[in-house]
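User: Let's play a game. I give you a shape written as C-alpha cells, and you guess the letters that built it. Ready? Here's round one.
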C-alpha cells in the first residue's frame, strides 16, 4: 500500500471517528494525533532498520511537538486514530490492531522492567476512553470498549466493556446487537 493511500485511509478514519471534522484539509493540517501516527510510521521504519537512537530521538521530538509519545518499537495497525492526543503514551512492545481509536490521556504501559513483552495488545476495533490506563502484557479483545479513566490490568475477551478501577470486563455485544450499523470502513 502506498504512503498516499495510507494517508487517505487515515483521513477517512478521522472523519468517521470525529464528528467535528469539517474538511480533509483541516484534518491533514490540524490533527496532532494524526501527525504523531504519521511520524511514528517513519520512526518505526528507522527502528526496524536498526537505527535505534535516531528513531527514539525522532519519537521524542514528535512528543515535544504533539504531546503524543509513541515508542518506535510499538506495532500499530491501519486506520488508527487518536482524538485530541495530548498525553497519550504507547510503550515499546504495545501492539495495536486495525481501526483502533484512543482518546487523550490514554496510557498503553508496562508493569515491569523485564525484557520481552511488557505492554498491552489491543485487538481490531477497540476504543479506549480518555484517561484510561491499560497496563502490562495483556490482551484487550477485538471490538472492546474501555471506559474513561478505567485501569485495565487483566485480559478481556472480544466485545467487552471495561470500566472501573480496577476495570472489570463485561459483555457489551456488537454494534449490530444494539441496532447500530457497522461503519463502512470495517466492512
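Assistant: Ready! My guess for every position:
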Amino acid at each position: 500500500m502506498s504512503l498516499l493511500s495510507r494517508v487517505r485511509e487515515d483521513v477517512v478514519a478521522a472523519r468517521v471517528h470525529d464528528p467535528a471534522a469539517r474538511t480533509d484539509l483541516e484534518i491533514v493540517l490540524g490533527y496532532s494525533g494524526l501527525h504523531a501516527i504519521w511520524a511514528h510510521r517513519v520512526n518505526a521504519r528507522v527502528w526496524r532498520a536498526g537505527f535505534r537512537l535516531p528513531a527514539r530521538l525522532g519519537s521524542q521530538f514528535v512528543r515535544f511537538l504533539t504531546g503524543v509519545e509513541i515508542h518506535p518499537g510499538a506495532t500499530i495497525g491501519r486506520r488508527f486514530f487518536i482524538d485530541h492526543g495530548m498525553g497519550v503514551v504507547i510503550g515499546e512492545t504495545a501492539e495495536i490492531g486495525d481501526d483502533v481509536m484512543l482518546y487523550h490521556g490514554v496510557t498503553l504501559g508496562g508493569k515491569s522492567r523485564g525484557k520481552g513483552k511488557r505492554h498491552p495488545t489491543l485487538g481490531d476495533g477497540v476504543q479506549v476512553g480518555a484517561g484510561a490506563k491499560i497496563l502490562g502484557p495483556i490482551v484487550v479483545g477485538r471490538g472492546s470498549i474501555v471506559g474513561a479513566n478505567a485501569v485495565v490490568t487483566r485480559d478481556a475477551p472480544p466485545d467487552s466493556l471495561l470500566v472501573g478501577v480496577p476495570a472489570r470486563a463485561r459483555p457489551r455485544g456488537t454494534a449490530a446487537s444494539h441496532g447500530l450499523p457497522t461503519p463502512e470502513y470495517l466492512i
